[in-house]
Amino acid sequence: MNFTYSIAAAAAVCASANAAVYTYTNLSAWQQAVDNPAIDLFPAGTSTSFITETFSGLTPGSSTGYSGGTGWYSWAAASSGGMVNANSSGLYSQPAGTSLLFTFGPPAAGEAGVLGIGGDFRFFNSAGVAQDGRIWVRLANGASIVKTFTAADSFVGFWTNDLAAPIAALRIQPVGASASTLFVGVDNLYFGTVPAPGAICLLGAAGLIGANRRRA
Amino acid sequence: MKQYAISLASLAIASGASAGIVETISFTNFSAWANEGPKLASFPAGWGTKIEVETFDFVKPGSYASLMGGDSWSAWTMSASSGSMSANGGMVSASKPGGGLTFNFTVPLDGLGSGLHGIGGDFGLRGATGGWMPGRIILTLSSGVSLTHDVNSDNPFAGFWIATPSVTITSLTVMPYGDDADTTSVSINNLYLGFAGVPAPGALSLLGTAGLVSTRRRR
Fold this sequence. Notes:
The structure holds 2 protein chains of 2 kinds. Chain A is α+β, with helices and mostly antiparallel strands. Chain A has helices at 2-15, 27-31, 197-215, and strands spanning 21-24, 49-53, 61-63, 66-68, 75-79, 83-87, 90-94, 100-104, 116-124, 130-131, 133-139, 143-149, 155-160, 169-175, 183-193. Chain A has one domain (19-195): Sandwich (Jelly Rolls). Chain A has 3 helices and 15 strands. In chain A, strands 1, 2, 3, 6, 7, 9, 10, 13 and 15 form a 9-stranded antiparallel β-sheet that branches. Chain A starts with a helix and ends with a helix. By secondary structure, chain B is α+β, with helices and mostly antiparallel strands. Chain B has a single domain (20-199), classed as Jelly Rolls, CATH 2.60.120. Chain B has helices spanning 8-15, 30-41, 201-218, and strands at 2-3, 24-27, 48-54, 62-64, 66-69, 76-80, 85-88, 91-94, 101-105, 115-126, 135-141, 145-151, 157-162, 171-176, 185-197. In chain B, strands 2, 3, 4, 7, 8, 10, 13 and 15 form an 8-stranded antiparallel β-sheet that branches. A 6-stranded antiparallel β-sheet of chain B has the order 5-6-9-14-11-12, with no helix packed on it. In chain B, strand 7 and strand 8 form a beta hairpin. The N and C termini of chain B lie far apart (69 Å). Strand 1 (21-24) of chain A pairs parallel with strand 12 (145-151) of chain B, so a sheet runs across the interface.
């Protein structure tokens, strides 16, 4: 009887009926989000994998697009202005005032895809000097944040608990008074994921069954 | 790493929101929330926006189980997760360490979704003596979007706009978050409420009257 209830409860966990997105302005908090019981992103004991893309492997120059990563953290970058610039510190949209767009995946079989995404985002002027500015960081699932980015405060990141709908795209768009004169870019991109939905369901079921056995 | 030309299809996917949560924009700056939020939300043609501020000045010093205020689209009720709230000098805070604040709002005014689409506040963290403490809070909106925000000054701003026309804000919960979550409580000094929707019939009547008067004058 208890086993039946456990399976049903685990199925409910896996269905993730209430999709939620958590937004972070601090890298450390974003990295620790999965382990924070206050938000209950995934079942307790879920392992997390992180990948950092520094763009250091790119040949400096300009192109209509760049791509990198592999499997669940594969990415492609393009610009609403048509050109993307790569240099020693990251990727930037060209010309000034245009948006930089990243698309991810799709994940390979057995992978959950991108469930966490974050980045160090920057503004640069035409001389390549970092400037403070306001950027709209948008996910394709509808969540976004508008934040003033500075050299000391450049991180924004997200997590979704929706295993059926991993993060498919991220767009960074300059906004505000100086938006049309500055170049928006990213220095580092941070990817996060957890085991594929099947494994999460088993973890949830195991936890519930274990809890029932302890009660019995 | 290889260069490649990104497909138009993938650009189309990322240019708009796919199925998922409702479109929700988070803000950590009041000016951006008030001035750019309504523009970025791109509400339907014919909709108007306006902002009201609740300063809590009407709340006398004391302890409360709940508070309420506003009217129509801006009506709000407020309670603490820890059971009671303390009010003093225009600031309201959860009474017990680890306590947060929950706000509930009205449903849409009409079938189009006119009503509360923007919400923000000057939120802080209080220690045992009532003084402000640095730390981190998490704001959770009824749309399913949460924002964790560092509190590095007395009352920093955090807020949201829901851009999906048919969906209004029905609740906001603000809780301490992180290492010091059990020793601090959430406070608020100002609550900012943003309306978006079809202007009320009275406002439309006034606009119509103004238009008629202007037409007659031109004739």
